[in-house]
Amino acid sequence: MSQDPVIEARSLNLTFATNDGPVHALSDVNLTINKGDFVSFIGPSGCGKTTFLRALAALEEPTSGTILVNGQTPDQARQKRAYGYVFQHAGLYPWRTIAGNIKLPLEIMGYSKSEQLRRTDEVLRLVELEDFSKKFPWQLSGGMQQRASIARALAFDAELLLMDEPFGALDEIVRDHLNEQLLELWKRTNKTICFVTHSIPEAVFLSTKIVVMSPRPGRITDVIESSLSVDRPLEIRDSTEFIEIAQRVREGLRAGHGSE
Predict the structure, then answer these.
(1) Does domain 5-82+158-258 correspond to CATH entry 3.40.50.300?
(2) Phi, psi of 129 (to 5 degrees)
(3) What value does the mean pLDDT of the chain take?
(4) Side-chain half-sphere CA neighbours of 13 within 13 A
(5) Which of 100, 22, 32 is nearest to 69 (CA)?
(6) What is the pTM of this model?
(7) Phi-psi domain of 52 (left: phi exceeds 0; alpha: psi -120 through 50; beta: other)
(8) Using CA atoms, how far apart are residues 89 and 9, in angstroms rounded to an integer?
(9) 162, 174, 200, 225: which one has the fewest Cβ atoms less than 10 Å from its Cβ?
(10) Domain boundaries, the chain
């Protein structure tokens, strides 16, 4: 991977004010993510994984510390369209075709009709949905809808892809297939990907780096650099190397609970 930092978080803290008092979502987070990294964030519910992604996307404002995307503030990065965001649910408009959903951000950004068509066709091929462009979301399976959501996030060619547990609601067979497809997509595009998950096997299978987080307030308890080959068939999950990395993730999760 490149050593050019895309994301730099330093002493990052984020506290929400609520009627029941302050909620400390992130505590002293320090992290560097380089260009081309595939980074998974794993930890118990409420540990700040999604909050960190939302801070990257300028959807939440840190209480203290700094966070930079390509050397700029998240808001500056947002204005320069530096990232695409894929949510847990596909969020496709039911009255628009799949192609129409993918074109929507391009329409908002003012791309010409010919460029909208070119980019839409390109990302549909990338996620293997070119034969479904005229279908409506309700005519597609959940997995296909998520692939369309990924295509929409890729349509304006942002270098950074933020993915908030996009496969969490899918069954295991579909999830395995989409994990394979996402890995291939990452290898072809060299995007930098930040991926939130609750699944240890998913985190280990997909990532070049795994960020293990503690229960709230969310702290990083371990950052695991993967030693797995970039070319990873699903069968690699039975290898000793894979199992050892998964065990280290489990130990990091247990250590996080022990430090409450």
Answers:
(1) yes
(2) -125, 20
(3) 91
(4) 10
(5) 32
(6) 0.90
(7) alpha
(8) 27
(9) 225
(10) 5-82+158-258, 93-157
